[in-house]
Design brief:
Blueprint lengths: L2 H5 L2 H6 L25 H24 L19 H13 L8 H6 L1 H4 L8 E10 L2 E9 L1
Antiparallel strand pairs: 1-2
Length: 145
Amino acid sequence: MTRTERATSPHAIIKDRSQSRTGIDRHTPKGGAGPHNWGSLLQERDLEEGALYDEEREFEASAGTNETAVPTREHRSSSVSVTEEDRERALQFRKNALKSGDVDLSAIARTSAAVSVSPPDAVSVVRGSDKLDNGNVVSTLRFES
């Protein structure tokens, strides 16, 4: 049997993966609307109008309400106040935490606020003058300690 005869045999045609087994062409669209052909083209206009109507209602509802302002840094209060004694105990606990056989990760995490070394002194931010740079507003910031 030659190669051509093998390729045209009924068994070879059945196993040929480039041909559809059902006989339906995969490349013809199903006639539906949307990326996955759900729905129909007759409903597409109604769906689009409904979406625009919903968007207008949401916009009108949000225009009537005021957005809540984010509290500034000076109005926030720190919930963590750590004394020197607590800090020393936390440091000692963290040094000896891995020496014992039982490692409690939650206890180590609870002591992280005591040993953090984020800025020791408060840093104030002073807003400078706004400048125009090619039509764009550029804000300059100065840091004072």
